[in-house]
Write a sequence for this structure.
């Protein structure tokens, strides 16, 4: 079973805290967030540097429907997902 975002973050931080107290909790929490932060920074840089290039603009334009659908799905009632 894979835990959703906030629960996974809290569990990783808690396990780090259990193993190495405060320092372990800080490191575990930081390393949990680091990959998504780096992806966000990378995509932002690509958009700023190459956003007007037709190929890159098309790729970012193509991501919009998927992003919209995932946000709509996440906001829907859990009873309707089954």
């Amino acid at each position: 079973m894979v835990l959703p975002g906030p629960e996974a973050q809290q569990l990783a931080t808690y396990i780090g805290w259990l193993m190495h107290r405060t320092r372990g909790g800080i490191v575990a929490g930081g390393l949990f967030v680091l990959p998504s932060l780096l992806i966000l920074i990378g995509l932002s840089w690509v958009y700023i540097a190459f956003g007007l290039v037709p190929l890159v603009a098309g790729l970012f334009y193509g991501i919009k429907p998927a992003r919209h659908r995932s946000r709509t799905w996440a906001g829907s009632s859990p009873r309707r997902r089954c």
